[in-house]
Known about the structure:
The chain is mostly helical and 221 residues long. Helix content is 82%, strand content 0%. The N and C termini lie far apart (55 Å).
Amino acid sequence: MSLIQQVLPFFLIGARNTLIYCFISFPLALLLGLLLALMRSSRIAWFSSTARIYIEVLRNTPIITQIFLLYYGLGAILAVYNLAQIDNSWTAGVSVLALNYAAYEAEVFRAGFLSVEHGQTEAALSLGMTSGQNFSHIVLPQAIPLMIPPFVNDFIYMLKDSAIVSVISGTELTSVLQFFVFRHSSNTLPLYALAIVLYLLMSLPISYVARWYERRLRAAL
Length: 221
């Protein structure tokens, strides 16, 4: 049996876990990002300042530092409450990806909202719509199509950034790669090649869908 045949089942488990990390973390990042964008656009100074500080801190500090801080911080909290049975690496991995990417998605949301002409908002308010109705019926439907391409691109980036959980013993594709590279240090090239192929198989279909959607969107505008 060849080396690739031996390791392929384990690499597929790692790839599956990579997708699980992303499919859990990205929706959470979108929800938090939307909240941050609304806070950032608020006229209440405390909301706006808090969101701006969060975004700047998360975007301008290394994600590896964030994951270590969260991993050891969560570990201490779980130990205090006798919750050691919870997998801290999964919890910290999902949390740091969601919290980090929320800062980026917040800016995508804000840019999408700002792309809607202010005159439409003024017209809606003059017709008696509330701010909430204007947002849900005027701003959001026009902004969402413009935000989907950057959201898809960020999801692809998250697929690659999910490798960061390998530093806290999280089980995903890169951590599986590292394990077998250590065991087969004299024949690592096929292992790296297999990992690259699996990352491409996960990200390229999403990338092609995003490009197709962008072309369709441009044709409709």
